[in-house]
Amino acid sequence: FPVTIGYCMIGFVLLGLRATCAKRIVTLVGVGYLTPMVVSVILAMTGQMSSENSWFFSVNRAIGSYGNANSFAAVILIVFPLYMQLTAEGESYFEKKIGIAGLLCSAVCLFMTVSFSAWLVLAVILILNFAYLLLSSKHPLRHYRFRAVGWLLFITSIAPLVIMALLKSFPEILEAVNYRLLLDRDEDVSMETVGSGAERIELMHIAAGELIKRSIVGIFFGHGLGQSLFSPNFNFDGVVVVVHNLPLLISLESGLIATILFYLYFLFLVAAIWRTRRDHPLLALTLLNSVLLFLCYTLFNPHFYLRYFWVPLLPAFVLACNYKKRS
After folding, report:
1. Tens digits of per-residue pLDDT, 116-160?
2. Dihedrals φ, ψ of 61, to 5°?
């Protein structure tokens, strides 16, 4: 459903690349990406692992129709700032309610993904934004501080209650939390042992070792897109697991040139958004946060070729194209 919404939004882009169009697209993204979250919460409330909600849960973790808990967590991170935008600056009652529902469902579903890396990334970004809000008088949310603080307090008070209700109806989620956070295992807790940290760090070491051993040609051009699946270094007794770090994966498969181009692509996006900060300060901050969350989570997830990760960034492309058009 979110991808279908994304294709519908392409029509808006083709009709006219204006900043006001970017705000409408934020609303469409909010509606489209809210649907899997609402369904996940409703199904979890039923407390039954039936064939219907197997599309939305796997190994006692929420996957939100994305097929993987970490992918669902990444989607939640990317759209989270958009719901903040709708809550603070929504022009209609409908937009504000979508923003509030999105923030609440995002908090609950992010807990149900049991993705430690997503929790960590979101915590860091929230701390940075909170520090910016305290230290700078130019923070866009200062214009909406009473509304934003009020709804934030509402979400932080309601979300734990919803989570507690979920744990009563769906206690299997708590088992996944206990296991991944080592609460029921006799092991020393460290950054490497929580969740799948040890496995991912090992894969990063393997990938870095491959890069170091390469010739100049291999460093610049890689060994081919998607070919890591056939590398014996990533085959563990018949189970193939590629490195869960997108910069390393691009460097391995497409080489240094493609890696530089990939980040220049985002540099162009950020620069375009930054130029619009005076005309649309809150929208610019929202999209900068989405791009930053996208890039941070690439350090933990290799699957960003999938379309549903990029649809929420469409407003950023609209702003970029709008600026180029005006220039």
Report:
1. 888 889 888 888 888 887 787 777 777 766 666 666 677 777 877
2. -125, 145
